[in-house]
Specification:
Rossmann fold; 7-stranded mixed β-sheet; globular
């Protein structure tokens, strides 16, 4: 039985669907900076120190740590459907003594936050894994402040990666307007604004 469980976990590493928490450590490999570094993402998010920011699907917190350090008068909320991922990210963030980070376990359907709470919502290689994309985008629209930005990054090698065209059509037909695009078709960030 143990061998079967191991083969299932190994198969899940490179297959479509939710990235398994058992591979959280692989999300911290510095080689990721070739595709998107925390500094690049921070620049693309146009952050201000007093913003409230939501990161959906933070994994092990590869981007979270640097973003939390920018939000000296605001806060970063990490939302994930896997408690193990939140625990992993929390352990890393706690080591740095950051107190402006909150953790929220989600059910994959509803984002349990009030209306118009965040200036920024971002996700990196997550949107393709979301089953109910339209409902999730409506939830993000609800929790974003007016003129807030939804930032979605997709990277080469992700088996669930959406093309820029697919992403823009999906997001713009669910209440957002295109604001700015970065990168290439292989590795990109697209920012959408809530009008």
């Amino acid at each position: 039985m143990k061998k079967d469980n191991n083969s299932i976990v190994i198969k899940s590493f490179a297959s479509k669907g939710v990235f398994s928490h058992q591979f959280a450590f692989t999300l911290l490999i510095p080689l990721r900076n070739i595709f998107l570094s925390p500094k690049q993402l921070i620049d693309r998010l146009e952050l201000e120190e007093n913003f409230n920011v939501l990161e959906i699907g933070p994994g092990s917190g590869y981007f979270s740590l640097k973003i939390a350090q920018i939000l000296t008068k605001g806060k970063l909320v990490l939302a994930d459907i896997q408690q193990e991922m939140l625990d992993y990210a929390k352990k890393r963030i706690d080591k740095k003594g950051l107190k402006n980070v909150e953790y929220k376990l989600c059910d994959g359907t509803r984002l349990d936050f009030g209306n118009e709470v965040f200036e920024r919502v971002f996700m990196v290689t997550v949107i393709g894994e979301v089953e109910n994309k339209k409902e999730y985008l409506r939830e993000i629209h609800r929790i974003l402040k007016e003129s807030g930005i939804l930032s979605i990054s997709e990277l080469a090698g992700d088996p669930d990666k959406m093309s820029k065209e697919e992403l823009k059509e999906l997001v713009c037909t669910n209440g957002f307007k295109l604001k700015k695009q970065f990168g290439s078709s292989k590795n990109y960030t697209v920012n959408f604004i809530k009008p």
